[in-house]
Amino acid sequence: MRSGFKIGKLFGIQIRVDWSWLVIFFLATWNLGTVLGSLHNEWGLTLRWGLALVTSLLFFASVLMHELGHALVARAQGIPVSNITLHLFGGVSNIQREPASAGSEFVMAILGPLTSFVIGGIFLVIFTLTANIPMPFGAPERVLEQVGPVSTMVLWLGTVNIGLGLFNLIPGFPLDGGRILRSFFWAVTDNLKRATRWASRSGRLIAWLLIFSGIAMSFGARIPLLGTGLSNGLWLAFIGWFLHNAAAQSYQQLIIRDILEDVPVAELMRKTPPIVSPTSTVATLVHSYVMENDDYAFPVMEDSRLRGLVTLDDVRAVARDAWQTTHVQEIMTLAKDLITIGPEDNTREALDRLSRRDVRQLPVMHEGTLEGLLRRRDIVKWLQLQSEMDIA
Ligand SMILES: [Zn+2]
Questions:
Q1: 153 and 232, same structural domain?
Q2: Are residues 134 and 201 located together in one domain of the fold?
Q3: How far, in Å, is the centroid of ligand 1 from the Cα of 119?
Q4: 92-131 confidence digits (pLDDT tens)
Q5: pLDDT 10s digits, 228-237
Q6: Which residue from 40, 45, 101, 107 has the fewest beta carbons nearer than 10 Å?
Q7: 356 Cα–ligand 1 center, Å
Q8: Do 158 and 38 fall into the same domain?
Q9: In angstroms, what is the span from residue 174 Cα to ligand 1's centroid?
Q10: Whole-angstrom Cα Rg for the chain
Q11: Beta strands in 252-389 (DSSP E)
């Protein structure tokens, strides 16, 4: 599903790093290290690469601050944020609900770029205080030749943070600029779905402009502000392609949530899922249930009451030679610790709960009794059915 790893928690928000982010980390360090090599050979290998590494790490912290800017505003407005993921093009805060109003969307969106501008500004102020070179500044290479290691680092970080803020202001959903645009459309039309459609179209339009400009640059055309050349052009086209996918995907997500809003859980749940007794052994569970069904999780029932839920992951944690002597009740998740849903609740709420806890199924409970089991794949299957019927 999602690739990457967790690195810790800040303000109670899980911080994750996507593998693609390591590419940027490597490229940034490599790029800095080689540039420093050509400008300041006298600094020595350790200083140059150490500086490149520290600068990249501080860049990493800056992107994190940008995302925290969004996430903390979201939380202050009562919208839960489960995690922040840093990836190739910066970060994504996994904000779990749409904001309540156009105004709160605007504040939430603008706080990210604002954070980047403030951080960039602080670094540039530090630069002017430490660099001790006369204003106005000359060409970047000329400036960098004249200053020491710390000034080099803060100049790079200042410029990159301001660049990050500007990039995110591109008015294409789901970038911050696109969200700001959406908040304007939303305020004008009072219709979130229409506003998202327009902002997403604007995102795709800008994406195509970037792709065409990138291709033109690869063939030698010179674009104002962006320059020319094969590598710049390909890079720009790649960003365009990424933005295009993101815009299409985020609109699709909204449509899906919209469809699921009208579907009660009872309609999609499995009404008679295979159930297990708490006193069964793990061996029985494996041979009579796991191998006989294609389910991932089994409700554990006793005297027609739900005692818990046992999953394949629970089974995997048990050594094979202990299967005969271990019982289901020793490895299951207790009913009181399960996240559940009611049969009359809508499936969008169910999907939110599934992703918030990163689980694959929800027991459907009504007045203390188990009515069924709603699995992720039941929702997926139903959505597939809907889209096939739309085509027909
Ligand atoms: Zn942002």
A1: no
A2: no
A3: 14
A4: 666 666 777 888 889 988 999 999 999 999 998 888 888 7
A5: 777 778 888 8
A6: 45
A7: 21
A8: yes
A9: 9
A10: 26
A11: 297-302, 305-311, 333-334, 361-366, 369-375
